[in-house]
Design goal:
heterodimer; A: alpha/beta; TIM Barrel; nine-stranded parallel beta sheet; two-stranded antiparallel ribbon; 11 strands; globular; B: alpha/beta; Defensin A-like; Rossmann fold; five-stranded parallel beta sheet; three-stranded antiparallel beta sheet; 7 helices; protein dimerization activity (chain B); cobalamin binding (chain B); Cobalamin-bd (chain B); metal ion binding (chain B)
């Protein structure tokens, strides 16, 4: 460890994060949401939509909520119903309850068995095609049309991308349902649907075989349908999912309680599916100053780690996020970036860290932006980052052109070739060591306050990302239900049983 | 003086006055090779570059080629015929003067409602203007003692924005639009302006019978406020101090 961080301070930071997270975890254990229940139905194999395009899982959960209440879970009323398309539900008792429970466990168990098979398939394909060396090069496609995305994604993979992320249509995070089928129109991105997942994964399997290197697929388990999208990702063998503990709250104004309940379930699925989550701390630095707010990034990473571990994620599944967003006009900006990046590397040695390129200080001067991206790439290899999102010199001007992506990959390839193992020679001096220690100590101070005041209050006070988000405000709170004593969720039963 | 002598002809400048040299880059959907370069040169010629030379061409996959071309622009610009765009119509005031003006003239706090409307989730712009943190070394409007800020955040529906503006009796509504795909920023802004016109039918203009409508974003450079139905557009790099000074100029009339 190059920074000489005090292990006692690091331990303290982790203890405080665990203490801050505990009441929220307890709340998440004792509540369910409409989206968690819909995810249970999706795992049980319920698919399709009614004539208006409303998914059956929504119709069923809404009907159960109206007729029975959701506090017992959707599984028993659903599996007790003779013909569920009548959308008439009751809560079974006695032998009828036992039969419904057995049917529910069998159906959901089959869905989870499919997730298990997908995980085994991934391992097999990684062995056959080969797992690319780190840092993985992460590229985004986002045309809105899955059939345009596919050739672009394949082209990007051929040009060197190891990870393809299909950006979602902007409005999707606030939709309280998952659209059905292949979609050809989106808004600044392509809808996350089960069919789109399947089509893209198949296309990347094809190109993986051609290239002799397994190309990973990423999407977003975030927004109001986080648990369902996590389930669909597991069912269709996606490899990484954006899944942050606070992003939806802060940037999408989704209710904090809804987010934490949804998040715990979605992370249990990701854990089972062998999916690497990507957290969103980079976003804090788009609203707050990258130097002043450096400690909020680390505090959030420690919280994401704690929530992730509690949900069953291994360290190798924690793609904690951070970013290169310091104002380049500030003296020593690159040294400060190295201090932050090295700090995160050393705090989470086994985590596949995701490092995000500059966006805030990309000015429209594409030539200067290309240089800044090269420095970002250099910081990434010097500090051993695991996943490097490829920066575009046209960031903030337009969605990347073919040539933008090509030039950006040329930039990364050059830096990797020229300086790939530079981390071996990089020994930080006092400036970087002191800066890292200071960010860590500010993190501890912040986590003290968060642990004392409670995480929900800290979010309400605008500690993360400056925006204030009270626990009783924001979208989706009406979809949160406290579990009753007889609550049944066959998915969590399986996911929480011994691995 | 004759009309002729008032002209001021300019050409692009490479390293010598009058050399007219410019550089462009583009992609053609053809395989890399000598034929592709001829196509690039023909395009350069049609763009008014003569002579032109392809200094770099690179295959991007089997079907596309990227070019960097240098050439001499044959077009001339009469600089004398280009009018100086109007400058800022208001005076820049420091926060203390903004507060003093609001206090002495309005005798109450100036109420501002801000939001990102439509599906736009990028609150960077509105937060830079509203949050205490501010932007470019200037504190945001929340910092001004005499300005009351209601930041509704991201993806606010236009109806909710109108309702909130009415509920708090807003003097000004600030809307930020970053996402520009399919001209969403233009459509969203027009829709917002129309909703305010409908909600305040007796209004004469912004600040008279309805809140002042102010929109900001990086890509409003091709439209005017009247195209959109708003009172003022702010572009990339706008600071909170500029917005505060404008609000005083437009709303705080002696």
């Amino acid at each position: 460890m190059k920074l000489g961080l005090d292990p006692a301070v690091v331990r303290k930071a982790r203890d405080l994060a665990a203490r801050a997270a505990e009441p929220v975890i307890e709340m998440a254990r004792t509540h369910t949401t409409v989206s968690v229940e819909r995810a249970v139905l999706r795992l049980a194999g319920v698919t399709g939509a009614d004539a208006d395009g409303i998914p059956w899982v929504n119709r069923i959960v809404d009907a159960v909520r109206d007729q029975v209440g959701l506090e017992h879970g959707v599984a028993l009323p659903f599996f007790a119903a003779g013909n569920w398309r009548s959308l008439k539900f009751g809560l079974p008792t006695g032998a009828e309850r036992d039969r419904a429970l057995a049917r529910a466990r069998e159906a959901v168990g089959a869905g989870i068995a499919r997730i298990d098979r997908n995980r085994a398939d991934r391992d097999r394909l990684l062995a056959r095609h080969g797992d690319p060396e780190k840092p993985w090069i992460y590229l985004i496609v986002a045309t809105g049309d899955i059939h345009e995305d596919i050739p672009q994604a394949q082209a990007a993979a051929r040009e060197g991308a190891d990870v393809i992320a299909v950006i979602r249509s902007t409005g999707q995070s606030l939709l309280d349902y998952v659209p059905e089928g292949a979609t050809r129109q989106g808004y600044a991105g392509t809808y996350a649907t089960q069919e789109n997942f399947r089509l893209m994964r198949a296309a990347l399997d094809e190109v993986s075989g051609e290239l002799g290197r397994y190309v990973r697929l990423t999407n977003y388990a975030s927004g109001l349908c986080m648990p369902e999208i996590a389930a669909l990702a597991g069912l269709e063998r996606l490899d990484m999912m954006l899944n942050d503990c606070m992003y939806g709250i802060i940037f999408r104004d989704i209710n904090p309680r809804r987010t934490f309940v949804d998040q715990r379930f979605s992370r249990q699925i990701h854990a089972r599916a062998g999916i690497v989550i990507n957290t969103g701390e980079d976003n804090y630095l788009t609203t707050a100053d990258a130097i002043d707010a450096a400690h909020t990034v680390v505090a959030s990473q420690l919280l994401n780690e704690r929530f992730g571990h509690e949900a069953g994620l291994a360290d190798r599944q924690l793609g904690l996020g951070h970013a290169f967003e310091i104002n380049p006009q500030i003296p020593d900006s690159f040294r400060l970036e190295l201090a932050h990046a090295q700090l995160v590397r050393e705090l989470f040695p086994a985590a596949p860290l995701k490092y995000m390129p500059p966006t805030k200080h990309m000015t429209g001067n594409i030539f200067a932006g290309y240089l800044l991206d090269a420095f970002f790439n250099l910081a990434g290899v010097m500090t051993g980052q695991s996943i490097i999102l490829v920066g575009m010199m046209t960031e903030g001007i337009h969605t990347p052109w073919l040539s933008d992506r090509d030039l950006a990959l040329e930039n990364v390839r050059y830096v990797r070739r020229a300086a790939g193992d530079l981390s071996e020679d990089f020994t930080p001096g006092p400036f970087i060591r002191e800066r890292a220690a200071r960010v860590l100590s500010e993190t501890v101070d912040l986590l003290h306050r968060v642990a004392d005041d409670g995480l929900l209050d800290a979010i309400a006070d605008g500690v993360f990302g400056v925006t204030k988000r009270p626990a009783d405000r924001g979208r989706g709170l009406d979809g949160v239900v406290e579990k009753a004593d007889g609550y049944v969720n066959p998915a969590t039963e399986i996911l929480e049983a011994a691995p | 003086m004759t009309v002729e002598t008032m002209k001021q002809i300019i050409r692009p400048y490479g390293d010598t006055t009058g050399d007219a040299m410019i550089q462009v880059s583009f992609t053609l959907p053809v395989p890399h090779g000598p034929r592709a370069e001829l196509a690039a040169l023909q395009l350069a010629g049609k763009m008014g570059l003569d002579p032109a030379s392809v200094v770099h061409s690179k295959a991007m996959g089997p079907d596309f080629t990227f070019f960097i071309v240098y050439g001499k622009a044959t077009h001339l610009i009469d600089y004398a015929g280009i009018e100086v765009p109007e400058g800022r119509e208001f005076e820049l005031l420091p926060p203390a003067q903004v507060n003093a003006a609001v206090q002495s003239v309005l005798g109450r706090r100036l109420v501002v409602v801000g939001a990102c409307i439509g599906t736009d989730a990028h609150t960077v712009g509105i937060d830079a203007i509203l949050n205490v943190k501010g932007f470019a070394g200037e504190k945001g409007l929340e910092y001004y003692r005499e300005i009351e800020v209601h930041n509704m955040g991201a993806q606010v529906a236009v109806d909710d924005l109108v309702a909130r503006a009415k509920a708090v009796d807003a003097d000004a509504v600030l809307v930020s639009q970053v996402v520009t795909q399919k001209s969403a920023h233009i459509h969203n802004t027009k829709q917002m302006a129309a909703a305010f016109t409908e909600a305040y039918p007796t209004s004469l203009t912004g600040g008279l019978g309805r809140p002042l409508l102010v929109v900001g974003g990086p890509r409003f450079d091709t439209v005017t406020p009247s195209d959109l139905g708003v009172d003022r557009i702010f572009g990339k790099g706008t600071t909170p101090g500029e917005v505060a000074s404008y609000l005083v100029h437009a709303l705080v009339r002696e």
